[in-house]
Request: fold
Amino acid sequence: MFKETILKEIDDIKARYPDPKSALLPTLYIAQREFGWLSHEAMHVVAQSLNLPEAMVRGTASFYTMFKHKPMGRHLIQLCTNVSCMILGAERLVDFLKNRYSLEPNITTTDRRFSLVIMECIGACDRGPAMLVNTDFHDSLTEERIEEILEKYK
Amino acid sequence: MCHSRKSGNPEKRNWIPHQVRNDRQKIIMEKILLKNIENPDSADINEYINVGGYKNLSKAFEYQPKDVIEEVKKSGLRGRGGAGFPTGMKWSFADADPKFPKYLVCNADEGEPGTFKDRPILEKNPHLLIEGLIISGYAIRAEYGYIYLRGEYPYAKEVLNRAIRQAYEKNYLGDNVLGKNIKFHLAVYQGAGAYICGEETALIESLEGKKGQPRIKPPFPVNVGAWGMPTIVNNVETLSNVPYIIEAGAVAYSQIGSKDCPGPKLYCISGCVEKPGVYELPMGISLRNIIYTHAGGIKDGKKLKAVIPGGISTSVLPADKIDCPMDFVSMPKHGSMLGSGAVIVMDESVCMVKVTYRALKFFEHESCGKCVPCREGTEWLRKILERIEQGMGREGDIELLSDVSETISGRTFCPLGDGAAGVVIGMLKHFRHEFEEHIKNAKCIFS
Reply:
């Protein structure tokens, strides 16, 4: 079960909606924050804390790409390769990450430093190619720039 | 020359052309939606109040809720999310439903690839949106509002949460807004990376804690929306227009931009242009003007090949078809749609087969799986496009692409399937030769 402070946080969220089921997405985010990813145990805890069937919790959690169903590296790289970023060379960056860090989409590096997820537009099209590292936006990426940026994430 | 008309408030607003006559004329428009965003503290409530913020809220409270709806109806404001439905009319449908409570939901799930127009409002002018939400909530007599924010905007979430806290502290939100015995509460709901949740019924499902799969319509959300109650879902940019309509009045507002689609519009330009970015311009400005005058033309002196004018779900236009007014009424007559106003510019070096393939990879990934034509059709289209792009295209593949696309069109629960099919149909219409050459030469002719 979650600790008291987190249960209180979930109660506050529930109070914002006429039906406490709405707290499911926010609570999945909390579970991901606390456990790092959504294991079966984590989803069990979510189901218990909201008094929802586990099938519903798993069904909802599996629908959304930002909920992680396996452990992630210390830093999550979310790189956009959609059309605007593709035109500006995002594919070269995918190759670069593979060659430089042995990092491929949906894979975590063996030292658990990075995980890579290919994104479908992160709304930074005017300064593409763009990526999110954890919650930080980085844009106008080139091979050199991406290497320089990733140096900061140990 | 620009043909300007006097607005209802000429000393302040004499800058608006009703129709842009000269296609190279630079339009300098006083900013309404992006006002004050050069100020590094523009997201702070005091800075917003300093430039006249929240004054329109007090003004709106002097009207009856029905009169606010009438004013918005008269202004001609259309929804900026992509469909262009008249906002005032949508509101009046929810208002006419006798059920209470009613809910107001702001669609901030900006996911249409190429679109980044709501982001500056969310990150730099959040109080404009909040003021718009409170006025709109008052108009439709909703006491609770929710901002459904895409998960990919973590910074916007922080900014919005701080702005909402500040608005509570100043009594613009709460049980007794401005001491007028009006209740309005607001919270941010964070999506989790599903494009389909930009569709209003899928968004409502998601807000209820479920998978974001669209509902069949009717009933429409204005009658049976969130938690079974009348619900208005409006885009960020739409709601951000509301304070100005109250300030200037419907008549003055309707003088801005196109006659059938008035108001300011945020156009976001990306791809092969010199100055990509978000531009606030009068609705109905031509695509050529946006690209060449405001966005500085094609990068590195290259030639324009094609433009996707309204986000990836809208049909591509070739270079000789860009003299079209960018508004909801004109664009369909020119073979595409305004969509979200996300202009993706492609020069002569861009491979149209590759763009189509990438677009379909996106639609396949984002198809929610609820209905067969979309779920199976997007995968099938992607597979055919993949083999054509990789030099393994077969004779008959182009006909097959057309056939599958036509079969998806009009047979899906929501517009995602239509969008995917429309992309392929549009590309084949204007750039069929590129597909043919890929198949004939058994390789990508651009790589």
Remarks:
- The mean pLDDT of chain A is 96.
